[in-house]
């Protein structure tokens, strides 16, 4: 989560754990940003973040529930500007399924490439693809994203849904271990396009496209390999290329769930 330079954001985490527990946790896991102790969850409750369903959630995941967890907050993030004004916020129901720090930082710094820990590239007829993650590791049930940049060659376009029968739209599919749960990435809606001599309307996109494939791995499966399949069909004003499927492999290291 570190970013060097004068424009680097300041990161603070608030927990209901006491200072000594947070200090040991930070030392054990190499955490360098500030961990703030809110014993009794006074600030947490004032912000309306107290999780009143913690007991049911802990039972669902088979975890032990005790009096201390009565003060557990919902995991959440506030993004403040330089004047201390909240410009964005994001909250989750459960500590088990929540975004990784790399995802939160990428969202907060939209438009700024914070660097890739793992990346892969591939190219085909009329299209270049790069995929990356800002982290090289996963933890069970942690929400992550594969960021994807697609560049359609000048003078070419690719089809997007819906397409007439016999044509291949742009699709991205993430595959991996058995417990992988991957979502659908947002793609541009496309613009209308017609081919002379065909009584059909197509939706196409060109230029540069950026998107992200959300995913999580629900079980600790050690070292895993993810495969991103990018299926598409590219055309120019003069010709249409056969449908292609580019495959990019991304390796991740498995890590255990963090607990103070």
General description of the model:
This protein is mainly beta and 260 residues long. It folds into two domains: 12-98, Glutaredoxin; 118-254, Immunoglobulin-like (Sandwich). It is built from four helices and 17 strands. Strands 5-6-8-14-11 form a five-stranded antiparallel beta sheet, with no helix packed on it. It has a four-stranded mixed beta sheet with strand order 7-17-15-10, with no helix packed on it. A four-stranded antiparallel beta sheet has the order 12-13-9-16, with no helix packed on it. Strand 5 (118-124) and strand 6 form a beta hairpin.
Spatial strand sequence of the major β-sheet: 5-6-8-14-11
CATH superfamily annotation of the largest domain? Thiol:disulfide interchange protein DsbD, N-terminal domain
| Helix share, percent | 10-25%
Low-confidence blocks of residues: 1-6
**How many independent structural domains?**
2
What does the main sheet amount to? 5 strands, antiparallel
CATH architecture of the largest domain: Sandwich
If you consult CATH, what is the topology of the largest domain? Immunoglobulin-like
Radius of gyration: 22 Å
Output the structural class: mainly beta
In DSSP terms, counting alpha (H) and pi (I) runs of 4 or more, how many helices?
4
Q: Please give the number of β-strands.
A: 17
Determine the mean pLDDT.
84
The shape is: elongated
What is the straight-line distance between the termini? 19 Å
Reading off the top of the CATH hierarchy, the class of the largest domain is best stated as: Mainly Beta
H-E string: EHEHHEEHEEEEEEEEEEEEE
